[in-house]
TrEMBL record:
Organism: Canariomyces notabilis
Family of this protein: Belongs to the paxM FAD-dependent monooxygenase family.
Keyword hit for Transmembrane: yes
Protein name: FAD-binding domain-containing protein
TM annotation in the entry: 6-26
C-alpha cells in the first residue's frame, strides 16, 4: 500500500487559512503540496490582522507564533468610523 503522504495536495488560496493548511500538511510529512492564488501580487497592503487566542495556539503548534509575536503590536483600543446606521422608520 502506498504512503498517504505521497498524495498530491492542492490548496486553493494563499490567505492565512490556505498557507496555514499547507504548512500543517508539510509538518505532517506530505511531500507534494501546491498552493494556488489568483492575486497577482501578495505584497504589503497596509492592513492589520487581529489574531485571537485560539489562532495563537494553532500558530504556536505550527511553530510560527514566536516570529510573528516579534513583529506584532498589542492594540489597546479601537474605533470604528463611518456612517451611522439607518433609522428604523417603521
Amino acid at each position: 500500500m502506498a504512503d498517504v503522504r505521497d498524495l498530491r495536495i492542492v490548496v486553493i488560496g494563499a490567505g492565512m487559512g490556505g498557507l496555514g493548511t499547507a504548512l500543517a500538511f508539510a509538518r505532517k510529512g506530505f511531500k507534494d503540496i501546491r498552493v494556488f492564488e489568483t492575486a497577482s501580487n501578495l505584497g504589503f497592503v497596509g492592513a492589520g490582522i487581529q489574531i485571537p487566542p485560539n489562532v495563537v495556539r494553532v500558530l504556536s503548534h505550527l511553530g510560527c507564533w514566536e516570529s510573528i509575536a516579534k513583529e506584532a503590536t498589542i492594540v489597546r483600543g479601537t474605533s470604528i468610523r463611518g456612517k451611522p446606521p439607518a433609522k428604523n422608520l417603521v
